[in-house]
Amino acid sequence: MVDHYFVVIDEVGEALSKLDEMLQEDITAVEAGHLYASRREVVGLHKLVRPLREICTHLLRGESPLLTEASQLYFRDLYDHSIHVIESTEELRELASNLRDFYLTAESNRMNEVMKVLTCVATIFLPLSFIAGVYGMNFEHMPELKHAWAYPLLWLVFVSVAGGMLWLFVRKKWL
Asked: How far apart are CA 98 and CA 102, in angstroms?
């Protein structure tokens, strides 16, 4: 029965390896729910095999006239296999946790990139909104209103401010 756990552990390990490859190629190809389900499966498997050590230890050290020296060899082998199964499930559990952490970090980095672009766009439009607000007021006695080139000059200021800020963001490698 213990030896059949090796088959299950190999299948779960292969599934986690495929998830790892998918995460390395394209983070959006993997859903968070799939990662959590895989981790839950590994944790459940670990909970199943963890008591094996105690059972095998009890069988190995048990004093019974039914246990012969020849059967002790099999129980030692069973104990070794159970230890190997437990260690394998611990490694799988660690791998599943690492995959989840990698996914969360990659998603966080992707969200940070989006937030950076949105912040730069908002920052570019903030001074433009201020200038438009000032010149959008309904006053008759604004000196710029009487000049023929005031409106094109205002657009030149808009484009200059936006272009200058965009150039600064690109130069600082924020965009």
From this structure: 6
Radius of gyration, alpha carbons of the chain: 33
Count up the domains in the chain and report the number.
1
Helices (H), the chain: 2-25, 32-49, 52-61, 69-135, 150-171
Signed CA dihedral, 140, 142, 144, 150: sign only: negative
Can you give the CATH number for the domain in which 70 is found? 1.20.58.340
Q: Is the Cβ–Cβ distance between 113 and 147 less than 8 Å?
A: no
User: Which tokens is 15 given?
Assistant: 């599934």
Render each residue's pLDDT in the chain as its tens digit; 175 residues: 888 999 999 999 999 999 999 998 988 888 889 999 999 999 999 999 999 888 888 888 877 777 777 788 888 898 999 999 999 999 999 999 999 999 999 999 989 988 988 998 899 899 989 888 877 776 676 767 778 888 888 889 889 999 999 999 889 887 7
Q: What is the per-residue burial (b if ≥16 Cβ within 10 Å, else e) of 142-158?
A: eeeeeeeeeeeeeeeee
CA-to-CA distance for 19 and 6, rounded, in angstroms? Answer: 20
Q: What is the pTM for the complete model shown?
A: 0.70
**Domain region containing 116:** 2-171
